[in-house]
DNA sequence: CGTCGCATGTAAACAGTTACATGATTCG
DNA sequence: CGAATCATGTAACTGTTTACATGCGACG
């Protein structure tokens, strides 16, 4: 089983394919679009942009802005685009399987006096909040004036979140019922 | 947001709470029970067992077995048990959000000519295989002669896998339908 | 004047896998 | 005899977060 390899490269190339961006801007865009199934930190973004430039997958222009620090805006190159396309056509690596909630539940009988219900309750509440956020996102996307061609795919990723979160809520309901009656 | 901290400690303590084990044995047990939501590698197990012993959470006995290398069997101590109990009562850290399949789907429109259907098809097949494994596990557990007290909780973790995988299959069905008719 | 937002970047620490070294026994 | 299984352990590498350093402008 291949371990999850470095995908920050491809994630950044993907967002640069939308247009030139600064490191700071990329972080904003990531947080505002895919935060639900992807995250990146500055500690990865800035070094990776440097690497991308060294490898000819992106170029940068430094500008002295009237206010604040000089900004470095990165653009994807043709080679960057083709690297992105190669990655997109490739099978994704299986996700890491590490779920602490389930591990705790698995060992729940090993600690007398502790009731895992609170944990499951908190999990359920979080999933409901997630579903609310998804509903908002859905409304926003569906009411957009001119939907971009990517939108169809964005909706599919949103749908994933919805169906998964719904299943998680159903599971939590079952668990709480089961634990309550024992 | 707290990043996923080191939980190998607690996982090993959990399995040691079932009885004394070697590093090698722990790996086997983990693979045969929770592999579905937890994994550990030798590269973490052996150093961590050493650490647990140094901190007084486990003790070890080295034995010269008639055949093969000397084996080191670890046992959990009272302090180890109480550390386990503390962890069990604590809220779990939220899981890392990194899903490469969704990221690829999100950018699918950025590569002309590539069809993400194959990826989703492969995902679907894997989930169906997962469901089959779960069904087998369920049969085995339900036909056990004398179910241990932990069994109730094991079933809950199994149920999580079932409901999630079912939701994933439904999602894949929707996606394939959507992509096929466009 | 404080703090928020824009903006870049590094260093240290942590988490985790993979590959390797070592070696005996058992089973086909 | 070769492969699988039992068994321990390390080293190198990769991936990732967090905290910090730096600094300007705008807004209240």
Short description:
The structure is a homodimer of 182-residue chains. Chain A has helices spanning 8-16, 23-33, 42-54, 78-89, 100-106, 117-142, 151-180, and strands at residues 58-63, 71-76.
Describe what this molecule looks like in 3D.
Two copies of one chain form a homodimer. Chain A is mainly alpha-helical and 182 residues long. Chain A has two domains: 7-89, Arc Repressor Mutant, subunit A (Orthogonal Bundle), CATH 1.10.10; 100-179. Chain A is built from seven helices and two strands. Chain A has helices at 8-16, 23-33, 42-54, 78-89, 100-106, 117-142, 151-180; strands spanning 58-63, 71-76. The longest helix of chain A has 30 residues, at 151-180. Chain A is elongated and about 65 Å long. The mean pLDDT of chain A is 92. At the A-B interface, helix 1, helix 4, helix 5, helix 6 and helix 7 of A face helix 1, helix 4, helix 5, helix 6 and helix 7 of B. Chain A binds a DNA duplex (28 and 28 nucleotides) through helix 2 and helix 3.
